[in-house]
Design brief:
The chain is of the alpha/beta class and 489 residues long. The chain has helices at residues 18-29, 47-50, 82-95, 186-194, 220-228, 232-247, 256-272, 276-282, 299-303, 360-363, 397-417, 427-441, 469-477, and strands spanning 2-3, 9-14, 35-38, 102-103, 108-114, 119-124, 128-137, 159-162, 176-180, 199-203, 210-212, 294-296, 308-311, 315-318, 322-325, 328-331, 334-337, 351-353, 382-384, 420-425, 484-488. It is globular, with a radius of gyration of 23 Å. The relative contact order is 0.14.
Amino acid sequence: MTTSHDQTLDAIVIGTGFSGLCMAIKLKEAGIDNFVVLEKGPEVGGVWRENTYPGAACDIPAELYSFSFAMKTDWSRRYPPQPEIQRYMKECAERFGLYPFIRFNTPVAGAQYDERRALWQVELDSGEVLSARVLVTGVGQLSRPAMPRVEGLERFTGTRFHSAQWDADFDPSGKRIGVIGTGASAIQFIPELAKSAARVDVFQRTPPYVMPKPDRDYTAMDRWMMRYVPGYKELNRRIWYTAGEKSTGAFNSDSRLASAYKRLTLWYMRRHIKDPQLRAKLTPDYPIGCKRVLFSHNYFQALAQDNVDVITAPIERVTPQGLEAGGQAYAFDALIYGTGFLATEFLAPMRIRGAGGRELSEVWADGAEAYKGVSVHGFPNLFMLYGPNTNLGSNSIIFMIECQVGYIMQCLARLRQGGFRAVDVKADVMARYNVDIQSKLKNSVWSAGCSSWYHNAQGKVTNNWPGLTQEYKQLLAQLDADSFDWRAA
């Protein structure tokens, strides 16, 4: 292990997804320039850098998928593709002068809080250690691929990879392809594979609810109006934002809106799936919203093709030639995993140790929780972005991130102006907050018992926010200083 001899940093930010970029921008705007952003990859973008599979695109309208203070006006379509989103993020990094602050190809192994000096010691994979007064994590909830829990994955002799680790050299033309999983990524890449593959067999554990995706190209006139007509881009953003807020009601267990959405998804499925046996396979048997509701304009159409089949028999094992399911052997040239992410394992695999050497993973043994999704008692000067219970079933996570960054900046301002060396949320405050959050979540469809990445193995909903985003904005609008212990220098 080697310790950096550079001066102590004011802040270290981990990650260059939307969270890390937003945090870095606001640090600079506040006149704080003694910070560094640590990025494990070679470029900015987070999940939008990693996920390069065919068909990768946003399922949130473009009007909501940029920072409110840097609205993009030249999207190519309503639901922009992955390269365009990452390009926007790179443009933001350039526009706000962030690149000199970013250290690329720099994975973080862990961090430990030094109580005597009130500093975070951040250890890099290289062994180097950096010191900072404040540590901000912006690693997201969808950053670690979840591999299928199937016997013998390593035996397969063909091409195999997770959708988040797409093999850029893989050509599906004429191939026999097995796809494991039917999540948000899978419903985007399966139609692309089906265009040229000899055969695509989709191994489905649970069918998703799929809403029609009203995607379309944006014309030159659309882009001209967005850029030059006063108030036009703000009006469009407000319309889509309001629609997202209205949709939040569908996640209550007794919602009439949920019933309407369910009827819409089933109508959409019947419209494109004429085979009654396939319809039966694709009809969910759980409340809508319990798992992530997906959006697509071509998924059902792809499943109806002659070269695509949906297999619901449980996978028994992977073989050198393919896999076995329901007592039948399937041979493939490639296996692709669309099995999502380890979303409930917040901040892993980093080891974070707070006051007294307490390890965050142990504190979270029964499920991750934080105060307002931002702070954890016993971990002074540590702030999280897109932390526990801040994910959304509708609307844009960028809105939530901006609320969190604004709240953290208020904390940092009080730290600096008040001459404090550390801030730590009070244990009783955090406990009451999370009792309230879990109480509200009990009335949500996410607690209905289906298998999803919204909750951990014990059934605790650790990922989602239970209310409107406006409620979250109001909650974080003003720093509640009395909820924290402020330690003098």
